[in-house]
Amino acid sequence: MKPKNYRELLTDVLNEEEMKLLPRSFDIIGDIAIVEVNPKLKDKARLIGSAIINFHKNVRSVYMKASPIEGTYRVRRLVHIAGEFKRKTIHVEYGLRFLVNIERVYFSPRLSWEHRRVALQVKDGETVIDMFAGVGPFAIHIASLRKAIVYAIDINPYAYKCMKTNIRLNLKLLKGIVIPINADARYVANYMSNLADRVIMNLPQKAHEFVPYALRFLKHKGGVLHFYTFKSNASSMEDLISKFKDIVLSNNREVIKILCVRKVREVAPRRWQVVIDALIR
Fold first, then answer.
1. Is pLDDT at 268 greater than 90 in this prediction?
2. Which residue from 39, 107, 135, 206 has the highest number of Cβ atoms inside 10 Å of its Cβ?
3. pLDDT tens digits, one per residue of 68-80
4. In the chain, which residue ranges form alpha helices assigned H by DSSP?
């Protein structure tokens, strides 16, 4: 009988307690799988990686997480545990292709629907600032759907290099324009104020620190801010919204309307990435 998942391939290899510790999900970026292995199963990591490759025929390489996402470039250390030793892959979202170097750039395949959700809100003629663009998924999704100008900023030179490649990979599908910028968004805000109809700030671990710069990008008449942050089960959505409104108000702006508040994805047990879409005046 064909196995239902990769875990069933390990039932004759691992004992009952070890089976309970197996990860039930993992990220697949292009043809590379990235899995979080319980410390108690570290000596079985290669077996787990081989099982993933045997079950998922589109996966050619498996890496194990060796650190949290950290540093200015938002990357994590990875350990190769199975398949080909490769770091670059092409990931496809809604027919768009993205070159990703898994060790040098931040990219989450779990944000695929979020990339599209935001892009669908953009109107033709808008100017958009993506403050933490990575390899360009938000920007390229937007430009594929709308005749908009998107300034895609990222401080990581490797992400910037991938983003330029991704613009070329998808050029025939783009209705709008993506302008990649390799710089600190705080610095760019000094030169591109009063420009944007919409600002995307997907840096949840430090989002509150960057709100003043996001507001500087927005046109004086106002616009939409897509604000990403983290939420634990101990905090409420109302608390997050209240804190966000206070920061906006302290920077001489005002939240006119909360357009959307939603959980984007679970990043750890009882911890979520959430987004607040807000209309700012």
1. no
2. 135
3. 999 999 999 999 9
4. 16-21, 45-55, 112-121, 137-145, 157-169, 185-188, 207-217, 237-250
